Amino acid sequence: MRLSRILATTALIAAAPSAALATNGYFSHGYGTKNAGMAGAGTALSQDSIAAATNPAGMAFVGSRVDGGLEVFSPRRR
Questions:
Q1: pLDDT reported for residue 28
Q2: Which of 16, 22, 25, 64 suits 32 as a labelling partner, its CA being 20 to 30 A distant?
Q3: What residue segments make up the domains of the chain, in order of their start?
């Protein structure tokens, strides 16, 4: 009887939604403002100087430059 209660409680806790899974997170879309804006397509098309974070070969087409960007992470929660 006690084991079945422990298993039932464990199953309920495992099935409960977690706050950590509320968003995809920033890093799943790409590194940098341009890459995140293109939903990670910067792996194939490097447009900023942080291209080496996703595809080191893309640095050949970026040239010598410095980029700056500002991002706000504000997930929509209900």
A1: 55
A2: 22
A3: 27-64
